[in-house]
Structures are given as C-alpha cells and as structure tokens.
C-alpha cells in the first residue's frame, strides 16, 4: 500500500515535474518512475544550476535522481523563472 505522499508522486508519473534540490540545483523533467525512497527516473530533463559564473543550464536525455537530495516537488512545474 502506498503512503499518501507516494500516492501524490504516483499521480505525477508520465507528467512534467519541477524538483528543487538541497544544493543550488533545480530539475525539470518527465517522471517515469520512483521507488519507496523517492529515487526517481526522469526523461527529457533540464537541470538549472547556480554557479559563481551565473546560471548553467544542462539538457539530459534521462537521469536517476537520488531522493535524499530532494527538497520540493512541483507537479506540472516548468522550472525557475528566467
């Protein structure tokens, strides 16, 4: 049986989500799946990172994201404002 939080994340499978990380990174991608620890597989990913030189944007086909580093999930989010 899924917990209430897991049920909310489960509803996001196949949808775009905006993820705020503990570090200076934010990630936007399509959620393919997750496990009990909220480790996530995402595709069509854009990673936004704040560096001393400014904002760096990286495009990735697919990633496995460690759930321990997630601060917040925004279903349907499009990422940080430019």
From TrEMBL:
Renumbered to this chain, the signal peptide range is none
Coiled coil start-end: none
Q: Which UniProt keywords apply?
A: Acetylation, mRNA processing, mRNA splicing, Nucleus, Ribonucleoprotein, RNA-binding, Spliceosome
The family assignment reads: Belongs to the snRNP Sm proteins family.
Could you tell me which residue ranges the Sm domain spans? 4-79
Q: Where mainly located?
A: nucleus
Q: Does the keyword Nucleus apply?
A: yes
Quote the function comment for this protein: Plays a role in pre-mRNA splicing as component of the U4/U6-U5 tri-snRNP complex that is involved in spliceosome assembly, and as component of the precatalytic spliceosome (spliceosome B complex). The heptameric LSM2-8 complex binds specifically to the 3'-terminal U-tract of U6 snRNA.
Question: Where is this chain's protein located in or outside the cell?
Answer: Nucleus
Protein name as catalogued:
U6 snRNA-associated Sm-like protein LSm5
| Any Pfam family the entry gives | LSM
Q: What GO molecular function annotations does the UniProt record carry, in alphabetical order?
A: RNA binding
Q: How does it assemble?
A: LSm subunits form a heteromer with a doughnut shape.
* Gene Ontology, cellular component aspect: Lsm1-7-Pat1 complex; spliceosomal complex; U4/U6 x U5 tri-snRNP complex; U6 snRNP
Q: What GO terms in the biological process aspect are recorded for it?
A: mRNA splicing, via spliceosome
Record InterPro entries: LSm5 (IPR033871), LSM_dom_sf (IPR010920), Sm (IPR047575), Sm_dom_euk/arc (IPR001163)
């Amino acid at each position: 049986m899924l917990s209430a939080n897991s049920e909310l994340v489960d509803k996001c499978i196949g949808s775009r989500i905006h993820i705020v990380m503990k570090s200076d990174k934010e990630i936007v991608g399509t959620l393919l799946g997750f496990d009990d620890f909220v480790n996530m597989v995402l595709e069509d990913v854009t990673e936004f990172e704040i560096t001393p030189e400014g904002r760096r944007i990286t495009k990735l086909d697919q990633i496995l994201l460690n759930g321990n580093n997630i601060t917040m999930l925004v279903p349907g989010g499009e990422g940080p404002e430019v």
